[in-house]
């Protein structure tokens, strides 16, 4: 039951769901939720391979770095979202056209 | 036995909550389901013997990131934008027409085949990992040694990155001056 393949399948489902959220949603905060899911899928893969294949703890350390990067990304991304809402009065992704021309 | 129960419960919580994040129309409910999914991933870390990573996941994500997301949703009105054209299943607001769905199905087939190929070539678990798979030894001491010996440069750089990101976020999100 608890094998490397089961963890990889869970991670695959998380990755696909995160990608779907990033593509299908029109709300910028929802897109950030999808990015969090994708990053968590990657971190879960690192820890699973660290237990079942390499037998050392480098995967754990890399997973911790992923968590740190995700926290920084969430802080900056949400600050940008709030600034965008202050300027445009909406957080629909189709309104983000400032760099189009 | 306990590890099996924890694994099954965590896997169900993770996958179910992640799918609920995708199909829920209310963005606030999506945030709460993301919290459930992240808690499930912490449980999966615990079944892998990564106790320190599991605790860090709970503290950083559930205590920090999801709260930040909830604040952002509340500060921006909490509206989700349902597009006029519903998708095939009528679940989430989606873009696309028949062409994009066809391309998406093709990409999904290729992606699934690639992953099946990778899964068929998995190395079998080493005997040492199979022997202590039920035990939960502490990893805090080894992770501390690794962070201050092998990965010390990345550790310091991540602290500088976190400081810069938080100061930058505070500067970007400050209210407009009149």
Automatic annotation (TrEMBL), chain A:
It is a multi-pass membrane protein. It catalyses: a quinone + NADH + 5 H(+)(in) = a quinol + NAD(+) + 4 H(+)(out). The chain crosses the membrane at residues 6-24, 31-49, 61-85. GO terms for cellular component: NADH dehydrogenase complex; plasma membrane. It is an enzyme of class 7 (translocase). One of its GO terms (molecular function) is quinone binding. The keyword Transmembrane applies. Its EC number is 7.1.1.-. GO terms for biological process: ATP synthesis coupled electron transport. Keywords: Cell membrane, Membrane, NAD, Oxidoreductase, Quinone, Translocase, Transmembrane, Transmembrane helix, Transport, Ubiquinone. Its main location: membrane. It is found in: Cell membrane; Membrane. It holds the Pfam family Oxidored_q2. InterPro entries: NADH_UbQ_OxRdtase_chain4L/K, NUOK/Mnh_C1-like. Belongs to the complex I subunit 4L family. NDH-1 shuttles electrons from NADH, via FMN and iron-sulfur (Fe-S) centers, to quinones in the respiratory chain. The immediate electron acceptor for the enzyme in this species is believed to be ubiquinone. Couples the redox reaction to proton translocation (for every two electrons transferred, four hydrogen ions are translocated across the cytoplasmic membrane), and thus conserves the redox energy in a proton gradient. HAMAP family: NDH1_NuoK. NDH-1 is composed of 14 different subunits. Subunits NuoA, H, J, K, L, M, N constitute the membrane sector of the complex. This is NADH-quinone oxidoreductase subunit K. The lineage of its organism: Bacteria, Pseudomonadati, Bdellovibrionota, Bacteriovoracia, Bacteriovoracales. The gene is nuoK.
From TrEMBL, chain B:
The keyword Transmembrane applies. InterPro entries: NADH_UbQ/plastoQ_OxRdtase_su6 (IPR001457), Nuo/plastoQ_OxRdtase_6_NuoJ (IPR042106). The chain crosses the membrane at residues 6-24, 31-52, 58-78, 99-120, 152-173. Keywords: Cell membrane, Membrane, NAD, Oxidoreductase, Quinone, Transmembrane, Transmembrane helix. The keyword Transmembrane helix applies. GO terms for cellular component: plasma membrane. It holds the Pfam family Oxidored_q3. It is found in: Cell membrane. It is a multi-pass membrane protein. Belongs to the complex I subunit 6 family. This is NADH-quinone oxidoreductase subunit J. It comes from Peredibacter starrii.
């Amino acid at each position: 039951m608890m094998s490397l393949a089961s963890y990889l399948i869970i991670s695959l489902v998380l990755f696909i769901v995160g990608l779907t959220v990033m593509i299908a949603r029109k709300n910028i905060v929802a897109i950030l939720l999808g990015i969090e899911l994708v990053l968590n899928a990657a971190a879960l893969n690192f820890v699973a391979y660290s237990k079942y294949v390499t037998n050392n703890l480098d995967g754990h350390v890399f997973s911790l770095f992923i968590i740190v990067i995700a926290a920084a990304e969430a802080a900056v991304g949400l600050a940008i979202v709030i600034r965008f809402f202050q300027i445009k009065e909406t957080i629909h992704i189709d309104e983000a056209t400032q760099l189009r021309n | 036995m306990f590890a099996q129960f924890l694994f099954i419960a965590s896997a169900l919580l993770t996958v179910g909550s992640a799918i609920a994040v995708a199909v829920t129309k209310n963005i606030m409910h999506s945030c709460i389901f993301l919290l459930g999914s992240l808690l499930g991933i912490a449980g999966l870390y615990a079944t892998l013997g990564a106790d320190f990573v599991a605790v860090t996941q709970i503290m950083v994500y559930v205590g920090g990131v999801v709260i930040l997301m909830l604040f952002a949703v509340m500060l921006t009105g909490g509206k989700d934008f349902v597009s006029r054209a519903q998708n095939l299943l009528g679940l989430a607001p989606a873009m696309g027409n028949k062409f994009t769905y066809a391309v998406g199905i093709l990409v999904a087939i290729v992606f699934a085949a690639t992953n099946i190929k990778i899964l068929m070539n998995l190395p079998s678990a080493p005997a040492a990992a199979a022997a202590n798979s039920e035990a939960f030894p502490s990893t805090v001491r080894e992770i501390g040694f690794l962070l201050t010996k092998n990965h010390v440069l990345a550790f310091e750089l991540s602290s500088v990155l976190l400081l810069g990101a938080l100061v930058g976020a505070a500067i970007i999100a400050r209210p407009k001056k009149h």
